[in-house]
Specification:
Strand order of the largest sheet: 3-2-1-4-7-9-10
Helix content: 40-55%
Strand content: 5-15%
Structural class: alpha/beta
Oligomer: single chain
CATH topology of the largest domain: Rossmann fold
Largest sheet: 7 strands, mixed
Distance between the termini: 23 Å
Radius of gyration: 20 Å
Number of helices: 11
Shape: globular
Number of domains: 2
Order of helices and strands: HHHHHEHEHEHEEEHEHEEEH
CATH class of the largest domain: Alpha Beta
Bound molecules: 1,5-di-O-phosphono-alpha-D-ribofuranose
Length: about 325
């Protein structure tokens, strides 16, 4: 139990972060938890797995990759604990492998949209977005990247470190300088925590103003998102919950105490409407945002069936 709670805590505190990475971490934890469970009784095994799944899926509310990963593993079957455990391992390893391949494939597909000499703006720290940028660079294209700090957690520092390590020319800017620099930008490439059925993209707070500035400047916006970041629940009319994080990420408790009447708002994500997005680059291909519904049906259809079935074993996990 200790390790399970530790992993859940690391995802919650963002020690493990990034929509794809938390999905892989949750799948790996479910696999390891199943391996550690020393029970002989299949109903007991199932109950413990279900509780572990709920704990992991509830750690961060916005990145749909997380419940999608959990549900993909929780599709396991088996009449005995041995069979069930083997299936959990197979499904978890399969998810992790597909996820890693998807990020690589997105890089290959997305890099085709990057031209030699382009200046790319990116926001926060997205492995999928960086995969596109890194592949374009590896192909010998001469590119410049402008990366935002991404307050309050400063994930932009991770991005510039990674890009610098790859030898890519990179500038770090404050988030509020996005429009100031947009005139120099040829392409915006960002990641996603969730994509809704109508093609809206939920990503790190500030993404929508970057997209708005890009739209004003007639600059294309590419979103890099694996298919498991698409939200089946939105087909049922649900909205994606925007995570509100602690005030201490924005201002120290000490400083905050000086302003008695001031509340701090700290939404971690925002919604970019599909009108501002030219392309969503998935491992299944580069699609217009209007095609999000098809991706959900084709790649997560099993999830919708389970959600709407009264026989679902794992109610509420996706
Ligand atoms: P990849 C991150 O969320 C960022 O919003 C980033 O754009 C998105 O996940 C996708 O990241 P957070 O965990 O899966 O930093 O592409 O809140 O790495």
């Amino acid at each position: 139990m200790k390790q399970l709670e530790e992993t859940a805590g690391k995802i919650r505190s963002m020690e493990i972060r990034g929509a794809g990475r938390i999905a892989r971490a949750a799948a790996a934890e479910l696999r390891d938890y199943a391996m550690r469970l020393s029970v002989d009784d299949i109903p007991v095994f199932n109950e413990k797995m279900k509780n572990a799944a709920k704990l992991l899926a509830g750690t961060r509310p916005t990145a749909v990759s997380l419940p999608n990963a959990v549900r993909a593993v929780m599709r396991y079957g088996g009449d005995t604990v041995e069979e069930a455990r083997a299936d959990v391992v197979k499904l978890a390893d399969g998810f992790i492998m597909n996820s890693e391949n998807a990020v690589k494939r997105i890089g290959e597909i997305g890099a085709r949209r990057v031209r030699d000499g382009d200046t790319i703006m990116t926001h926060c720290n997205s492995s999928a977005a960086i995969s596109i940028i890194a592949e374009a660079h590896a192909q010998g294209k001469d590119i410049n990247v402008i990366a935002t700090e991404s307050r309050p957690r400063m994930q932009g520092h991770l991005t510039v470190k990674q890009l610098d390590g790859l030898g890519i020319k990179t500038s770090l800017i404050v988030d509020s300088a996005v429009r100031y620099f947009m005139k120099d930008v040829d392409l915006v490439v960002v990641g996603a925590d969730a994509v809704t059925a109508n093609g809206s993209v939920i990503n790190k707070i500030g993404t929508s103003q970057l997209a708005l500035a890009a739209s004003e400047a007639r600059t294309n916006v590419i979103v890099a998102a694996e298919t498991y970041k698409f939200s089946p629940r939105t087909i049922l009319g649900e909205l994606v919950e925007i995570e509100e994080r602690d005030a201490s990420e924005v201002i120290s408790a000490e400083k905050h105490a000086e302003f008695q009447g001031v509340s701090v708002k700290n939404p971690a994500f925002d919604v970019t409407p599909r009108e501002y997005i030219d392309l969503i680059c998935t491992e299944a291909g580069a699609i217009p945002p209007e095609m999000a519904y098809i991706i959900i049906k084709d790649f997560l259809g099993w999830g919708i069936e389970e959600m709407t079935s009264t026989a679902s074993k794992w109610e509420g996990l996706i």
